[in-house]
Amino acid sequence: MTRSKRGSVEIQFNWIFVLIVGAVLLLFFYSVVKVQQKASDKSIGYTTAVDLNTIFTSAIESTGTLNIIKIPETTIDFTCYEYYINNVNKPFDAKSVFAPDRLQGKRLMTWAVDWHAPFKVTNFLFITNPEVRYVVLDPIYLSDPLPRASPDGHHDMFVELWDMLPEELNIETAFDDKSPDDIFVGDENDYKTRIVYFRDSTYDDVLALSNPPALPTPLKDRPDQSVTAIVIAGDDLDGSGMIYYFEKNGANFNYEDEFPYIRHETVLAAMFAEDADVYECGIRKAFDRMEMITAVYQHRTNNISDMYNDLGHRCTSFFTSTYVDAIAADVTDMIDSNHFDKTYFETLQHDINLLERTNRDTIAQSCARIY
Amino acid sequence: MKRGQIKIAETIGILVIFFLLMVFGVGFFGGVEQKGLKEAEQDAFELRTINVAQMVLFLPEMQCTEQESVDIDCIDVYKLAGFLDNYDDHKLYYFSIFGKSKITLAQTYPIYHNTTLYDNFGSEFTKKLVTNIPVSIYDPVYDVYRFGYLKIEVAQ
After folding, report:
1. Which of the four pLDDT bands, split at 50, 70 and 90, describes residue A321?
2. Chain A: closest CA distance from residue B139 (Å)
3. I need a surface site. Which of A296, B25, B74, B105 has the fewest CB within 10 A?
4. What is the mean pLDDT of residues A62-74?
5. How far off is chain B from A242, nearest CA to CA, in Å?
6. For residue range A328-363, what is the model confidence (pLDDT) as tens digits?
7. Does the pLDDT value for residue A182 go beyond 90?
8. How far is B82 from chain A (nearest CA, A)?
9. A371 vs B54: CB contact, 8 Å cut-off?
């Protein structure tokens, strides 16, 4: 009896020992798998982030072409300064990048445009994907008599913008109307929808608050954060004007913020930017670059002027650098005051027009170009 | 020694051998991973070299332009002079895009002439990659083109 008792204690001890060792082994392998999974996620994130950095760097230089990039199924978060994949972040540095705050899926679309003011300043990179829907509304029937109709019967600013947009984007158009029931934009269950409205230059923040654009009825039941809108308020896409941002709140749009535009490239930037903050941040980066580039042009104009002067050349008069200096002063004023408002943009646009005219004269006179 | 003790000793022996094998396995796996990491590091370095080369070629501070069109692989000598003159005011910006590298413009025809555009090589680096890109160098006053190349050295 004593013997069999000792035997059973030994057997029980063996079982307990095996159980403890088994549990330790299981824990060990579980933690190894977990660590490996984390490392693998981070490694995929790192590889994708590095690859995307190269893609973005080359995409921003290949202007005018829309690139569709196949990527591993992942979520990429964007801010104005950096992007994140699996907690790995990569900075955009001084690049002006305009994108939604989050993109999910297996494809990315990049599209870059040169920003000229009037000389090339920088490139804007727009990032989106086919799951983000852009609806551009033609305001032709908003008022009576019909405003600014182009030869094909559409509003001229609408046509100008629509013609610029690559067809590979998830874009569509409809007519704008005062009644939300009469704006025929269906609910396609899109993850994000950005609606673009046009108004003339008389539209201001008071009107933006009291008279926001009408949210198409079929989109009223979409989650609030999935539908946003901008109003392009101006008389010329290649002039200056204002961009008003709106967020959906139930069945209506609420005015959020505003920031001016100058030339059509910045209008496109406003369309692709998540909100007014991202748009403003990208434009500020562009103006920092403009200050640097304008200083180079000032130097160049002075040097060419001296050279022509020494040669007693007839072209000297074009290189007095007055207009380049005026643009430099506009940009420095804006940056120093930290106040980017419509008036500054109008003055800058005026000086840009003058420089464009002088540059055309240099071409007509077979002189070196100012830019 | 009792039978039970022998069994426990056996089990412990097996466990020791098992853990030894596992340590070897983990060591081997770590070695393979490290090799992969080094390769990835090399790839990233090569990609950075390509990025720097691209950034130099597309710098609006140097590019030849004709109104709104850009002449690729061409450097305007007057813009270049402006860039060099303003460089000190924007060192940080250029460091953010070129990092640890050296960029030289070598004019080879009609006369040989070297201009250093950017030099932030430092004294400590493990390796460097050199890329030469042929470019034309434009003088807008005389409307003449010269030949040369951009030498881009990126350090790690």
Report:
1. low
2. 9
3. B25
4. 91
5. 24
6. 999 999 998 888 888 999 999 999 999 999 999 999
7. no
8. 4
9. no
pTM: 0.86
Chain B positions in Cβ-Cβ contact with residue A114 (cut-off 8 Å): 68, 70
Question: With contacts defined as CB-CB under 8 Å, which chain A residues touch B143?
Answer: 368
- Answer yes or no: is pLDDT of A10 > 70: no
B42 in contact with A, Cβ within 8 Å: no
| CB-CB under 8 Å, B76 with A296 | no
Asked if the C-beta of B68 comes within 8 angstroms of chain A's C-beta atoms, the answer is: yes
Q: With an 8 Å Cβ cutoff, is B60 touching chain A?
A: yes
Q: How confident is the model at residue B121 (pLDDT cuts 50, 70, 90)?
A: confident
What is the ipTM score, two decimals?
Answer: 0.83
Beta-strand relationship, B113-119 and B101-109: antiparallel
Contact B47 A50 (CB under 8 A): yes
